[in-house]
User: Which sequence fits this backbone?
């Protein structure tokens, strides 16, 4: 029973990690930049869900389109206001820039909302269901399924639409895409918007069952970094499988080793993958 519970819980949690990782991997795939502010932006979307619920009564599930739209605008604004100015800068400077954005956002949250833990009490989701012999809380189940649907939508956009083909063209060769008349700056702007809209969906749904505080994004984004590393940067398939793998490893380690060591086991896997296959199992970078 413990094994089934760990597997089902791990897979469902893996869908959430996968969506966060997909946003990270998508931005890297489009423009080759690792967004170290990803966790802080996840935190921002969780606070957005909380305040929307507090002042309007809108449940997290219903607030997903609004939060995703807000984060889409934040992503485009962040690119146009900051990232765009550092496109040709060395990798280290780009990394420091996004890390600085992360520090700024976390401290801004501390200043505005303090370090208090906040919870969305009226989620509209309650109780638990039995799934394959395991008991899963409704907020976790619905959040995982919404994240999986959002991941499917992102995958469809990238692989089955003309916009997706344009994004892939820019991702493979920016200069060639420019010669073909593609406005790469517009694609990058859209890429940041889409990448953060995805984070908006994940953050809103995580807020329905996880406490919200300024540093909450760190845990999720670190696991998502591991998921992307396992799957391979730039690969959406890799992000999905990497996210599920992390969810399973975390839950199985919690059951069969010790709950206190489950994060350590995840990072041990991260180190092993880096040593054995640094480009990940589906990555090309």
Assistant:
């Amino acid at each position: 029973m413990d094994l089934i519970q760990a597997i089902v819980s791990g897979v469902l949690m893996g869908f959430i990690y996968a969506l966060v990782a997909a946003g990270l991997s998508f931005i890297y795939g489009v423009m080759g930049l690792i967004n170290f502010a990803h966790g802080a932006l996840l935190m921002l979307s969780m606070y957005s869900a909380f305040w929307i619920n507090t002042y309007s009564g809108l449940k997290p599930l219903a607030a997903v389109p609004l939060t995703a739209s807000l984060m889409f605008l934040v992503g485009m604004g962040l690119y146009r206001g900051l990232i765009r100015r550092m496109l040709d800068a060395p990798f280290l400077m780009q990394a420091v820039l996004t890390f600085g954005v992360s520090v700024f956002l976390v401290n801004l949250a501390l200043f505005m909302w303090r370090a208090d833990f906040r919870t969305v009490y009226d989620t509209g989701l309650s109780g638990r269901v039995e799934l394959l012999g395991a008991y899963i809380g409704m907020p976790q189940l619905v959040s995982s399924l919404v994240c999986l649907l959002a991941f499917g939508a992102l995958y469809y956009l990238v692989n089955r639409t003309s916009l997706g083909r344009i994004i892939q063209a820019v991702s493979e060769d920016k200069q060639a895409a420019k010669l073909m008349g593609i406005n790469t700056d517009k694609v990058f702007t859209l890429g940041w918007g889409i990448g953060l809209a995805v984070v908006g969906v994940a953050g809103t749904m995580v807020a329905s069952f996880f406490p919200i505080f300024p540093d909450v994004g760190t845990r999720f984004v670190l696991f998502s970094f591991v998921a992307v590393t396992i799957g391979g940067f730039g690969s959406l398939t890799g992000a999905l499988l990497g996210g599920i793998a992390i969810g399973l490893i975390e839950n199985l380690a919690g059951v069969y080793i010790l709950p206190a060591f489950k994060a350590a086991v995840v990072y041990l896997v991260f180190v092993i993958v880096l040593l054995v296959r640094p480009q990940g199992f589906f990555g090309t970078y």
Notes: The CA atoms of residues 39 and 218 lie 5 Å apart.
